[in-house]
Write a structure and sequence with these properties.
Distance between the termini: 70 Å
Mean pLDDT: 78
Structural class: mainly alpha
Helix content: 55-70%
Low-confidence stretches: 181-187
Strand content: under 5%
Length: 187
């Protein structure tokens, strides 16, 4: 009986250690996200300072839209890039480039994608009972947020003719060769 009490106490001690570690990981993840945002802000500020100090050095055309305008267009279009482009009167590639170049625009677009996923996820639960979940399932398996939530389609790999895949643990020889060699490592 004493052994059992000691084992329970040891398990409780380990559980507390794991909880403390999880809390520390969560805190570090939050700090990492804040740090990433700060680095994005620093990079943007450095680009703006460079443009102010060396206006002649700027390559390409000046940007026609402010980040705020692109974010507003994305919000009005519910994150649909073509809809935002139509509202701005530009090509969709312009909006895509703003998303790539400007962290604030990327965050706004990501937020819209997450909202779309949340709506689809809610409809999945309410619509599944009615049987109209197929369109919602498409969003859940194809949206950028779907991968983060684990809703990507499952893929299976098989051997020849659908047979089970055989994997050998034996490694006979690893041969390195130069692409320029015609014999591909053979002697």
């Amino acid at each position: 009986m004493i052994d059992l009490v000691v084992q329970v106490q040891e398990a409780e001690r380990r559980l507390e250690e794991v909880r403390a570690c999880l809390e520390e990981v969560r805190e570090r993840a939050e700090l990492a996200k804040r740090l990433e945002d700060l680095f994005d802000q620093i990079a943007q500020a450095e680009r703006e300072i460079e443009e102010i100090q060396n206006p002649e050095k700027k390559i390409g055309r000046p940007e026609k839209y402010s980040c705020a305008q692109v974010i507003e267009a994305l919000d009005a279009a519910n994150g649909v890039i073509q809809g935002a482009a139509d509202r701005l009167g530009c090509h969709r590639h312009t909006v895509e480039n703003y998303i790539k170049r400007h962290p604030s625009v990327k965050r706004a677009w990501d937020s819209q994608q997450d909202r779309l996923f949340d709506v689809a996820y809610n409809w999945l639960w309410s619509g599944a009972a009615k049987g109209d979940w197929r369109q919602v399932l498409h969003v859940l398996t194809h949206s950028p947020a779907a991968k983060r939530y684990g809703f990507m389609p499952r893929k299976e790999i098989t051997g020849a003719d659908g047979e089970p895949l055989t994997v050998s643990h034996d490694v006979v020889e690893i041969v390195e060769y130069d692409d320029e060699d015609d014999d591909h490592g053979e002697e």
